[in-house]
Amino acid sequence: DSGILGNIVQTGRGEIINDFRVGPHETQRMALISVPLKSKESTIGAIALSRSIRSPYIAEDLKFLTSIAFQAAGVINALLHERQLKESRQNDLIFRLSSQIRESLELNIILTTAVSEIYSALQVDRCCFLWVHCGTSENAESAIEIVTESRRNSLLPLVGDHGNGVVDNIANLLSQQSLIRINDVHSLKETSTQQFLLTHDFMSVLAVPMQTRSGQIGAICCGTCQESRVWSDSEVALLQAVTNQLVLALDQAELYEQSRQAAQLAQEKAQQLTTTLETLQQTQLQLIQSEKMSGIGQMMAGVAHEINNPVTFIYGNLEFVQEYVKDLMDLVNLYQQECLTPSTALQTAIETVELPFLLEDLPNTLNSMAVGTERIRDIVLSLKNFARSDQAEYKSVNIHDGIDSTLLILRHRLKANHSFPGIEVVKHYGDLPSITCYPSQLNQVFMNLLANAIDVLEVPPLAKSPTITIYTQQLNSDRIQIRIADNGPGIAAKIRNKLFDPFFTTKDVGKGTGLGLSISYQIITERHNGSLECRTEVGQGTAFVIEIPIYQDYLKENNLNGKTVERTSLPQASS
What we know:
50% helix
């Protein structure tokens, strides 16, 4: 009678009923005794006994049953408390594990954390995480890959691939999302699986499968190695709860990895575009430089050739003209000595042409013509040296010749005129050896630097004594230094870092391309393995310092003008 038992549970007191009717028609009479089972907070149940009415219960029976109920309630309370504590620990584990694996988006960290926590919570001998790789064809074998594990120190590690057909049954079950729950490995009928587990010291196995959003099949696998173990439903539920959390974390890790790869790919493409842009820009500079140097070289070579032909003819014949004139002058002097009484007409002609002055000045005039033709020849030679159209490869040259040739070409800009006092060039040349370089490109650098210095010194307010000073020296056995300095106004700090940028110029539109220093920097650093540095101070002038190796790094041996050039190892040039 649920009403009687309910009353006992509600009142919390035991009760004896010696005439208790039971049966479909309540015709059977029984004796009944019942006592409550109490916890600290409330009544949790009751113990009831019944027997024939011919043996009624007495107070001693009630007392005895109450004592037994008290002891049973204590055991039940302990078991309930243990179950609650276990459930609380499992909930704490799930919460803690969930928090830990969500703190990281790295797949390895997530898996290692999960395996370590489960290993400690279930107190197993081995816990691992594995991926299942199923064969793609009918004859292909399945395999499992154990990626991380926690184990007793005495056990051998299992991390790695396992296949060869011995794990087909395990892999197939997990791929079908089937739970593997083996309390005793010896009871298995499938011999290959049993042999595999026993070989790796498994006495019992619990494996819970999972599937990620990308379709990968994984599993958390726990096992004991010393004795078999009956896996409880709560342990299975715990592992299933953990795998649910792990699936979410792995999905997030996969999304993070995909986004990271996409970001890296985008970054690589951006870097490729940047590199391509820089390459295009450098190619543009090289094309401009090549076209410029080609035009200059062809023009100078053509001009030099056209000037050189008539000048050579004049210069070559001047020697004969001087001899002819000398012979004629000697003849005139002899004639004067022989003809002591010239006619009136002859005397008048002598006075008209001022024969004494003519005889004195004609040699001077011829000498001046010879000096002029020599200067023209020097200019032609300077044009040829500057263009170096026949020297596209490395050559051994005298740096001072290149500087002097450049100065001679720029001589017209250095001279004084009615509005400009002129620029003085002071040269402090050191004793330099021949340098292996691209002569025409190095001359272009000298041209750019000297032309910039002249541009600065031409702009009002003019310096009191506009001066360009050129220093050359040998720094050591491997390097030389060239310094071209002016006493102009210097360069402001805000534009110093932009000097070598392509197309940057401080000149008016149409007066500069902004390529001179950029190309010069490229020629010195990339083509000659050297350095180009600007040293400037406002109000104190500007100096450009070039340092280049005497021999280039890769010119260990090269036949230059019939001579073999050898070099020692060079320090890395700074740029």
